Each structure stands twice: as C-alpha cells, then as structure tokens.
C-alpha cells in the first residue's frame, strides 16, 4: 500500500519567500511531506525540475452576478471555475451582491445556490454592501463576519451600489469593531456623471469615451477620500483595481504615514491601455470597457514598479465576463450602445496567472516568490484563508501548479470561459500551467480540463492576517 495518494517528484517549489528542490507528498487532499526521496505514492507526477507554485487565489472575480435584463454574465460557477482551474487558480472569491432593500442573508443564500454543486474549485464570498441599514450594520454584518464572511466591498460609484461618505464611515466602523477587511472601489461618482453628460451632449458616445468619462483624477480623488475615511475610523482598507500613477501616489503617501492601506491591481492595468477602447468610433473597443479604465504605457510602468516594490499586496483578475456578440453582453439587446450603457468588465480569470508569470517572472520584472505572494499567499492572508490556502507547506491544501515554460500565442479558442473573446488575443506568452491540482486532484492536465462539477467546496473565511490583530 503506497504511503501517499500522490507524490510530485523533482519539483522546484516556490513559496512567497523561498525556492527549493523537493518532492511533495499529498494525502487526503493535503500536503503531508516535503523532502528528498520520499516514499511512493499511489500516483506519481515527475515535475522534472519545473517550478511548482501554490494554486492561485483569485480574490476579485464576478461570477453569475445578477444584472438587469437583458444583460447577463457569461460565466456561472461551472464555466467560471473551470476556466480558473485551467489557468492555475484553485480558489476564487467572488462577490455576493446585496441589492438595495435586500438583506445580506438573502444575498448570500442566493449566491450559495448559484455556486453549490457547480463549482470546480473551492470558493468563498465577499459581500457587497449597498444598503447599510441599521439592521445590516448592527446585526447582519457582525453576525456574518462571525460566520466566515469576513470581507466586504464598498462602492464609491455606480448608482445602484454607491455609498456616500457617511455610509462608508458607518461600514468601516463595523469593519474596525469586528476585524473585517473592507475593499473599496474608488472612483468619484459625481465627476463621472458630470463628465458623462457633457460627453453625451457633444455626441461622444463611442466606447473610447468611457476612458474620458473616468480620467485618472476621479480615481485619485476617491482614493484620497477613501484613505482619509479609513484614517478617521482607524481601520485597514484594501483599494481594489488600482489603475495608475495618481492613485499609487495616494497609497504611497498613506503607507509612508503609517496607515494600513493595502492595494490590489489587475492584468488590464499592465497590458491594456485607453487605446484598446478605440482610437476611432469602432465598437470593438467595448471589449475592453472596464472601470477604472486602462490608462497608458507610463501608468503601466508605474503599476509594474508597484508590483515589484511591494506597494501592491494583491494581484486579481476582476473577471467580469460579458460576451461581445449576442444580446446579453457588450451589446445589450443586440444593440451597439453608448459608452455609459456598455456593461463594465472584461474576462481574465484564466489568463491572470500566466500573464504575470510570462511578463513578470519570465521577463525578469518580478521574482517567482513575488509572483506567489501576489497571486496566492497575500490574497489568502487578506481574506482569512491562509495557511490552508496560498501556501506550499505541510498541512496546506494540495492546491498546486506545475508550470510549463514554453512560447505560444494566446487565443480565445484555448480558453475555457464562456466568453467569446479575450482582450489578450494574439499576445505572445512564455508560460502556462502544465498541471493544476485542487486538493490533490488533477483538474487541468495541460491539455484538458479534468475536474469535477461540484467538487469545489465553500470556505468559511477567518480573520485577515496581513496585519497584526488589533488588541483592545
Ligand atoms: N469594474 C468593476 O468595478 N467591477 C466589475 C468590472 C469592472 O469593470
Ligand atoms: Zn470595482
Ligand atoms: Zn470587480
């Protein structure tokens, strides 16, 4: 009888701090030994000296999030987590969105129903708090934090979701009292509205005007305000999808002043620019409409610098899947609509890891350890899943990626999401996951998806461990 269920031989194991050569033994879905010349496993994989990293934790993705008809997200928990697995991500944290007037419990019950029996990899939920009533603030949120929903997103824009400053302070105060992590979408709603109206009045409605309606300054102002609000409450925050220099400057300032301000960025701010929204009035640009919008090459470099020097804590996809053709996605009802009505978001749950390994690690911009920190270890810590997730260590779940370093040209046909395009079509990449293991099971073998619908389990999150726990 073999000692282990699985042994991965000759791995070049990468953690957030180290690289070392070892065999990895797995039993009952967990890593049970790391060492040289380990006993046999029922199954053996020869990594042949290839890098082996923890599976990705995608801490910002949208799956099956309800939309006003006719718009519908292209990926549900089946196709979205299949796509994640094939791209090396083994844990996802999508959002359970509270509609105004809805209880948080109702929102969560709805998302459990959407995920259960469908997910191929493990998942947790962030809450989106859009209606912070006294009952939500005093009863629901504290109870849900205790039950394992320990993070929530606050929007400063989008009419149906945004909170005013007083409401943000109220929600941050709950985060402080109960130790939860508040994520903030920082864009100034009134500035966007004012600019959008002027653009529309001038007949400027093509997709490319989306970027003009949300210039860097609206993100800078909201980032500054979010930092000030968190300073007032004295609570850590995590600013999501940071797009460029002016927001980065605000975050650097906050950190230099000793504030616990964490930041996330996403592939679109490294690899896309406002030009991808169109240099003329073509509707193709709708494929890259997301918020905040992609900026320019100079800002891309600032984001790279922030990844390398520790300004950014987390690298997520912000996968928000809308098909380009058809009537439910970027062309609602089959129509080419004005920039204001184009569903915001791009697909990227499958490409996140390979883009950063190729252009980050292989291109020499970041170390393999930094890659692991950004894509796996830190998101697991930020949202209370570490060390079970985000860790290549004895006792951790055997969520692993064996990397293939090879050159190829990316095309949407290779991907497993349910979206009819990728914004990264034609990009030359130098790496892709050769094998993905989720709790010791091969879910992607380099050619085919081999996971099982419903094998993904819901994860109750603990408290964030990015910073020491406040006492008293
Ligand atoms: N912006 C968001 O805030 N969420 C989903 C996608 C997007 O573009
Ligand atoms: Zn957002
Ligand atoms: Zn998002």
TrEMBL record:
NCBIfam families: D-hydantoinase (TIGR02033), PRK13404.1 (NF009941). Its EC number is 3.5.2.2. Its cofactor is Zn(2+). The modification N6-carboxylysine is found at residue 153. It is an enzyme of class 3 (hydrolase). Coiled coil: none annotated. GO terms for cellular component: cytosol. GO terms for molecular function: dihydropyrimidinase activity; metal ion binding. Residues 52-428 form the Amidohydrolase-related domain. InterPro entries: Amidohydro-rel, Hydantoinase/dihydroPyrase, Metal-dep_hydrolase_composite, Metal_Hydrolase, Metallo-dep_Hydrolases_sf. CDD domains: D-HYD (cd01314). Carbamylation allows a single lysine to coordinate two divalent metal cations. This is Dihydropyrimidinase. Keywords: Hydrolase, Metal-binding. Belongs to the metallo-dependent hydrolases superfamily. Hydantoinase/dihydropyrimidinase family.
């Amino acid at each position: 009888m073999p000692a282990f269920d699985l042994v991965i031989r000759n791995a070049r194991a990468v953690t957030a701090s180290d690289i070392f050569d070892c065999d990895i033994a797995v039993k009952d879905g967990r890593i049970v030994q790391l060492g040289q010349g380990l006993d046999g496993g029922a199954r053996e994989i020869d990594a042949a000296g290839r890098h082996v990293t923890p599976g990705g934790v995608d801490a910002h993705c949208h799956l099956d999030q309800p939309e006003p008809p006719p718009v519908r997200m292209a990926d549900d928990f089946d196709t979205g987590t299949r796509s994640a697995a094939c791209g090396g991500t083994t844990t996802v944290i999508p959002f359970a969105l509270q509609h105004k007037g809805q209880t948080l419990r109702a929102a969560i019950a709805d998302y459990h129903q959407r995920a259960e029996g469908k997910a191929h990899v493990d998942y947790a939920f962030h809450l989106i708090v859009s209606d912070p009533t006294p009952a939500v603030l005093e009863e629901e949120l504290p109870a849900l934090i205790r039950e394992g929903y320990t993070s929530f997103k606050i929007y400063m824009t989008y009419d149906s979701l945004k909170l005013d400053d007083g409401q943000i302070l109220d929600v941050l105060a709950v985060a402080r009292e109960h130790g939860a992590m508040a994520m903030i979408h920082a864009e100034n709603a009134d500035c966007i509205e004012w600019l959008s109206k002027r653009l529309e009045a001038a007949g400027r409605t093509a997709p490319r005007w989306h970027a003009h309606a949300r210039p860097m300054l609206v993100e800078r102002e909201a980032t500054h305000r979010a930092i000030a609000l968190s300073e007032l409450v004295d609570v850590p925050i995590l600013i999501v999808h940071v797009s460029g220099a002016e927001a980065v400057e605000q975050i650097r300032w906050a950190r230099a002043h000793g504030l616990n301000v964490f930041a996330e960025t996403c592939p679109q701010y490294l690899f896309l620019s406002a030009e991808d929204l169109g240099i003329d009035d073509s509707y193709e640009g709708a494929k890259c409409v997301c918020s905040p919008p992609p900026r320019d090459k100079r800002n891309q470099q600032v984001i790279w610098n922030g990844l390398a020097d520790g300004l950014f804590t987390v690298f997520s996809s912000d996968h928000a899947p809308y098909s380009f053709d058809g009537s439910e996605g970027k062309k609602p009802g089959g129509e080419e609509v004005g920039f204001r009505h184009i569903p915001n978001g791009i697909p990227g749950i499958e490409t996140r890891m390979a883009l950063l390994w190729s252009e980050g690690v292989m291109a020499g911009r970041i170390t393999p350890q930094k890659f692991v920190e950004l894509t796996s270890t830190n998101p697991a810590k930020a949202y209370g899943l570490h060390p079970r997730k985000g860790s290549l260590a004895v006792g951790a779940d055997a969520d692993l990626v064996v990397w293939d370093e090879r050159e190829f040209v990316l095309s949407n046909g290779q991907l497993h999401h349910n979206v009819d395009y990728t914004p990264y079509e034609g990009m030359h990449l130098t790496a892709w996951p050769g094998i993905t293991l989720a709790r010791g099971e091969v879910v992607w073998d380099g050619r085919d998806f081999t996971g099982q619908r419903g094998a993904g389990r819901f994860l109750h999150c603990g408290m964030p461990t990015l910073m020491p726990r406040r006492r008293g």
